[in-house]
Design a protein that fits this description.
Length: 177
């Protein structure tokens, strides 16, 4: 077996272990959906570093995702299209890549033509602030820097999750505030 395949298998095993260990740690805790948004710094794959608290005055959509997450793929086109539609209206999208090898994450971003700022959750420090239980999870932050709700599961027209219409309505409400 080639060294690349062995390295990929090793990375996948480590990611699965981290995923389950993290899940056990946050089991029983609910995700925050109101109050001040937990602040974090995200070093994007493109280089710039973004601090959430520096975005006060804008609506922020924080989406936790991973390249290995099938439901994440289901919502990605909608997220990118909505970002393009709202980026000039004071809405910032931040993608937080969770427990993912960087080459896989970069391939995913290229495949889905993601242009909004995205970076890895290095050391899984951002996910615990939001007590995520998996991916995808999306958090809405108002212009005042407070959480304005969340969506656990893929956004889109899938039964049981936030629909496209609900997503757009949420953004419209936050932009109008």
């Amino acid at each position: 077996m080639s060294r690349w395949i062995q390295a990929a298998i090793f990375a996948l095993v480590i990611a699965v272990i981290i995923f389950f260990a993290f899940g056990l740690r946050v089991q029983g805790q609910s995700q925050p959906s109101s109050g001040p948004a937990p602040d974090f710094t995200l070093k994007t794959f493109d280089g710039p570093t973004i601090r959430l608290s520096d975005l006060k005055g804008k609506v922020v959509v924080v989406n936790f995702w991973a390249s290995w997450c099938v439901p994440c793929r289901d919502e990605e086109t909608l997220l990118e299209q909505t970002y393009e539609q709202y980026k000039n209206r004071g809405v910032v999208f931040l993608g937080v890549d969770w427990v993912d090898p960087e080459p896989d994450a970069r391939a995913y971003l290229k495949q889905y033509n993601i242009t909004y700022p995205t970076g890895p959750d290095l050391g899984t420090t951002i996910g615990p602030l939001y007590r995520i239980k998996g991916v995808p999870e999306t958090y809405f932050i108002g212009k005042d820097g407070n959480l304005a709700g969340n969506s656990l599961g893929p956004i889109g027209d899938n039964a049981g999750y936030m629909t496209t219409a609900q997503f757009i309505q949420k953004l419209e409400t936050l932009v109008a505030q």
